[in-house]
Amino acid sequence: MPISSYVVRCLPADQAAVREELLALPGVELGEATEKGFPVVTDTPTTRAATELGERLQDLPGVQSAVLVYHNFEDVADDLAAAATPPKP
Amino acid sequence: MPLANRRLFIKQAALSFASCVMAGSLPRNLTAATTVEGEDGLTWQKAPCRFCGTGCGVMVGVKDGRVVAVQGDLENPVNKGLLCAKGYHAGVALYGKDRLTTPLIRRDGKLQPVSWEAAIDTIASEIHARPATFGFYGSGQWTVMEGFTAMKFMKGGLGNNHVDPNARLCMASAVVGMITTYGVDEPSGCYDDFDLADTVILWGNNPAEMHPVLWSRIIDRRAKGQQVEVIDMATRRTRSTEQSDHYIEFTPQGDLAIANGICHLLVKSGKYDKEWVAKHCNFRQGADADGEAMTFEEYAKWLETYTPEYVQQVAGVRPKQLQLLADRFADPDRKVVSLWCMGMNQHTRGTWINNLVYNVHFLSGKFGKPGSTAFSLTGQPSACGTCREVGTLGHALPGGRIVANPEHRQQCEELWNVPAGRINSKPGHHAVALFEALQKGDMTGCWVQVTNPAQTMPNLNAMTSKLRDRFLVVSDIYPTVTTDLATVVLPSAMWVEKNGVFGNSERRTQQWFKMVNPPGEARDDVWQVIAVAHKLFEMGHPGMKNKDGEFLFTFKDQDGKPLEIWKWEVFNAHNVDEMLYNEYRPFTMMKHKDVAPYQELVNSRGMRWPVVKNSDGIWQETPRRFVEGEDPYVKPGTAVDFYWGKLKDHKALIWARPYEPPPEVPDDKYPFWLCTGRVLEHWHSGTMTRRVPQLHRAMPKAYVELNPEDAAKMNISTGDPVKITSRRGTLTLPAWINGRSTPAKGAVFVPFFAEESLINLVTLEAFCPLSKQPDYKKCAVTITKV
Question: Is A48 within 8 Å of B697 when comparing Cβ atoms?
């Protein structure tokens, strides 16, 4: 946890290479590809790792866009609350 | 369920949802219903996003009384399942550890916990003692009913018009622009036009960061093989520039000249839509809102000043660039959408530049047609739905009415069931005037809800430094620099912790139900105002009685017995939002801004007003106003009908508004332009988004962007502390060079989200004389490496 899912867009010609790149990333699973790209789910131990993984998806060669569409943080909700206070003046 | 199985369950649900977004179809369990039990075992309900004026649909997942998941709402036509970074974390923003959970009163200099009864008594006593010098500063993040309740309390109760919102700081120029151009507020077009345009022109806005889902709606058309050209007109290169086809950099305030320059070229070449102009427009000249008549010939002569050479001189735009813009508008087959936001609205001639962009679209006939419109993007989630439609402005009343009009006052008195003569005819203070009056002591108190003026007003030392000496009530969800100055702090319910309605940029009114309880003793802002109103009623204040001598906020149950909604347990047990909405809805019909019945909103993903029952008995929304076949109020045979035209002739006005430099420009002592604004990760003053760890980590602190050539000359590198100083104040920030944006040479940019770096100590409070909206985009500063 948290668990997120993305729509990862790429051209059909790049799909094989993108699939390989995606499967090499820890915490990533792919759904069935279409001509637009892949549905992807990520499962990471921390929210920091989830954010970094999302950025890596976007930066993979051949990926046109990686758009977050679902985010479940039920197992880390308390940790998030404890962590979150902005700096004071 | 064992944890491992639960993870599998959720991952399957997540992957299934992503597949559906890709295919553009609904998951089998997630029908058009507004509440569903998900595959992942959560209860999902719809709501519009808490943040910007796009109004994306969100599905909020609740488990054990907490928001634990978010997904984009596939059924919502605004975003079709997509959200931006802030939207995904709106749920997390509810659970910061320093959430306000108890009322507080300042005693011996410190805020101390008190009961609700004590807090309400204290506020009511102050208002009872000094009712005429108490103001209400509200928000474009108010729900519709929060704004309506404050209006009824102040204008329909106390007879006090000192109600103004923070939307004065974001949308007032767009409002007055529309009213002076076509007689009534809010856009004609809708988001569907973005899907059809051949060319999209950005007039000083950065939608890639500020309206990201709408931006992706435009840019993703390219991935589908559609041609859509984007022209970015700006004073700095941004993420929007990266995906634009043309970047046209202009000198601050030069937009006035550019718009006139385009019109000059259209008229000179004869390549304007003569028929459209003759049928739908009149011409007007003058500096104010009324102006004087002008002929087309006089307008054409007036335009002669705006040659490409003159435009280059004042705006820095090359003649070829101006011609490119003119060519787009001159092409009769090209569909063109203009978009703008704070670059045009936070402008000392904001009303004028709004008028001028409509001029360009009217002259070229690119208005009121699918894919061709001039569209004002709203910043806040309900600046339209609440501030503009409910009229929470010093001069206004609900439904497009004004306090100065005796018929309008009478209509509101009747709808509110208050005695004739209750509503004051004198307009109340606009935002800058309100805070100036508080500063001087002419106003003695103010209630602030859902906004943070001690961070967001311009020239803070002149606007807010004396607030601690006034009776300041602040309703908020987290401690802020404004609660730090308060006499009374009230803990508020946030977003899906209460029932609510928002209205977005494209006139879509969207409803949601309360899904989780607020923490501790936090309570709805609507209840807070009603509770104070009832305490004043008990104290005998005549303004808290309606015409029948009953309490101002009287709603009855099915047996005709008044509901004691000033008692929290009674309020909480009923949908008071729906009761207030049903009272509000008739107000909206006079100016053909009919909002949908409440149940229609419950059963839909919002409806664009005017919503009128058609001949089949179906409630029908209006995608495009003033357009025959879409707007039910359009006179048949007119094609486009500006039925609220200022001259009562069903036409819009083309205004001759000149170029005028800003009041403060760089000089020898203060040689740089300062522009301020938002960033993708943070909403406004950061009180919510900085409490989301992912967003805070992504953008942890404020900075000053410099042009790399300027930075090199001053030997400044990224990370170096830089002092930014104006005639009003100073601030030191780390430099960021060649980051996500690049200002023009001689200009710097600073975001305003960080409360430890108050850039508004430096900004200028000069405002548009017509809209009263301040200009946060341009003042003069000096830059020094520390």
Answer: yes
How many residues comprise chain A? 89
Cα within 13 Å of Cα(B506), Cβ side: 22
- Residue A80 with chain B: CB contacts under 8 Å: 92, 95, 692-693
Q: For B93-106, what is each residue's pLDDT tens digit?
A: 999 889 999 999 99
User: Each residue of A14-68: pLDDT tens digit?
Assistant: 999 999 999 999 999 999 998 889 999 999 988 888 888 888 898 899 888 888 8
Our answer to whether residue B171 is catalytic in this structure is yes
Measured CA to CA, the distance from residue B555 to residue B442 in angstroms comes to 36
Nearest to B190 by CA among B622, B547, B714: B622
CATH number of B104-164+382-588: 3.40.50.740
Q: What is the CATH number of the domain that holds A41?
A: 3.30.70.920
Query: What confidence tens digit (pLDDT) does each residue in B688-740 have?
Result: 999 888 888 889 999 999 999 999 999 999 999 999 999 999 999 999 999 98
Give me the residues of B, 9-68, that contact A with CB < 8 A. 10-11, 13-19, 21-23, 40, 42, 61, 63, 66, 68
For chain B, residues classed under CATH 3.30.200.210 are 3-95
pTM summary value? 0.94
Helix (H, G, I), strand (E, B) or coil at B236: strand
Say which CATH topology domain B172-376 has.
Dimethylsulfoxide Reductase; domain 2 (3.40.228)
In contact, A4 and A32? CB cutoff 8 Å: no
- Put simply, the chain B residues between 672 and 691 with a CB less than 8 A from any chain A CB are 686-687, 690-691
